[in-house]
Amino acid sequence: MEETRHTLTDFEEALIGLRRNVLTMASLTTSSLQNALSGLRDRNNDLCRRVIADDEKVDQLEIEIDHDGLDLLLRFQPVACDLRRVVSAMKISPNLERIGDESVNIARRIRELNQHQALPETDLISTMGAYAMEMFQSSVDAYSRGDAELARSLRERDKTLDEMNSTALRRLVARVPDDPDHLRGYLDLTFIAAHLERIGDHATNIGEETVYAAEAEDIRHPPHQPA
Q1: Structural domain contains residue 220
Q2: Dist. CA 100–CA 156, nearest whole Å
Q3: 207 with 142: CB under 8 angstroms?
Q4: 33: domain range?
Q5: DSSP 182
Q6: Looking at the 3D structure of the chain, how many domains does it have?
Q7: The CATH number of the domain where 55 resides is what?
Q8: Within a domain: 19
């Protein structure tokens, strides 16, 4: 019996460490996205350079989480809710890494954008960025608290972000004939909007993994409604 208690304690300690690394990775990714959005709003290339430089830290944490998660599975062979918690942490990590990558992509586009005259349509993309940031922060909060209800809300919110992206695309495309001299800038803003839309997708994925960990329900592919 004493040995069983010791094994369970070791597992919980290892799981706490895995979870801590996921939340640390989420914090770093949040900072990168915030810096990218601030760089867009303030035309600040220094913040963009910081986003690019910090990406390696996010990548290293993903590798560490993969390693620690596999070690947990092999050493303790968890089942039921314990297994779900380990697997979900390992599946959330790549989504965080991809949000970091999208932040880097945004930062690189902003540096190109900042070489030219500021465009009023940047405000439209900044609004979209704020919404994507709120979604991402909600996904992290849901994971941190095991809040399945908050996690479930992300799917519907992602539809709003998709609509914002479509609206932005229409507005930017419509501007090109009237202002062809700034074609490059409109293209950069279009790409930034697309990166933000993908961030919403990854935040939604994090929410789905949170629901799975908390309630053992896979909501990734809801049943199709009859026509």
Answers
A1: no
A2: 23
A3: yes
A4: 2-215
A5: G
A6: 1
A7: 1.20.58.220
A8: yes
Which tokens hold the place of 104? 């880097």
Query: Nearest-CA neighbor of 103 among 47, 186, 60?
Result: 47
Q: What's the CA gap between 18 and 93, in Å, rounded? A: 10
Query: What tokens were used for 21?
Result: 């690394």
* Each residue's pLDDT tens digit, 111-163: 999 999 999 999 999 999 999 999 999 999 999 999 999 999 999 999 999 99
| Residue 226, domain member (yes or no) | no
**Inter-residue contact 40 to 114 (CB < 8 Å):** no
Cα–Cα distance for residue pair 213/209, rounded to 1 Å: 6
Contacts of 117 (CB under 8 A, 6+ apart): 182, 185
Q: For 99-123, what is each residue's pLDDT tens digit?
A: 999 999 999 999 999 999 999 999 9
In Å, what is the CA distance from 103 to each residue of 29, 94, 196? 8, 14, 8
One-letter-per-residue 3-state SS of 176-190: HHHCHHHHHHHHHHH
For the chain, give percent helix, strand, coil, nearest 5. 85, 0, 15
Looking at residue 119, the DSSP 8-state letter turns out to be: -
CA–CA dist 103, 94 (Å, integer) = 14
| Cα 205 to Cα 67: distance, rounded to the nearest angstrom | 21
Rounded to two decimals, the pTM is 0.93
Domain-embedded: residue 42: yes
